[in-house]
Amino acid sequence: MPLHMPEPSQMVPDKIRSKLSEFAEGSKFSTKALRGARKGQLDITTPHRVFTMGLDDVASGAGLDRAQPGGWRYLVEDGGQLIASAEATERDDGGGFELSQFTEGPFVAATDKAVKAVRKLPQLAAAGFELRLLRIPALYMMALWLHAAAADLLVPLAPSPIGKDGKAMPAAEFFGDLAEEVRPAAQPGPPEAQGPQIP
């Protein structure tokens, strides 16, 4: 079975494409690749829903059932060349979605590489997995989340605090490895000792 990429309502990709065009037209991008992108060549691919877990959730031994759905993330291409990601989040007033960020960090290339790798997984032949993204901001952790009724697999994206970048792991193994990171991170300390903000 192919990897399933669910589509949000049309307003989400429309909003992102509109902002891409607006920023490119007005030279509003502050990052290198997007600043040099060609307006007519920009497009978005690989839609996936973003889920977030807090440090307390992980420290308490909670699993994916505690992951909270947030926005939608797409990969941004310039003439077919991957250059960034774009994310839209739901407005607090429930009035649709708005663009929250464009990103050119290391997780962009890591996402593309991991998606290509998981398409070759033998497990896809047995179950249709839905592509999601799990984010744990306090640990600077992002992972592809392959969700199916029968099983969930997580693929850490580089740079990952637990290593195993690009390896598909059962949820139990993933959270077991995270436990070693969570214990010291969960201890109180000065602000500079806390994890980075959302990647």
Explained architecture:
With 199 residues, the chain is α+β, with helices and mostly antiparallel strands. It has one domain. It has 6 helices and 8 strands; from the N terminus they run ααβαβββααββββα. The protein has helices at 11-25, 32-35, 55-59, 106-118, 123-126, 171-185; strands at 42-52, 68-78, 81-90, 97-103, 130-136, 141-147, 152-156, 169-170. Strands 4-3-2-1-5-6-7-8 form an 8-stranded mixed beta sheet. The relative contact order is 0.16. The model is unreliable at 189-199 (pLDDT under 50).
Topology of helices and strands:
Blueprint: H1 11-25, H2 32-35, E1 42-52, H3 55-59, E2 68-78, E3 81-90, E4 97-103, H4 106-118, H5 123-126, E5 130-136, E6 141-147, E7 152-156, E8 169-170, H6 171-185
Parallel strand pairs: 1-5
Antiparallel strand pairs: 1-2, 2-3, 3-4, 5-6, 6-7, 7-8
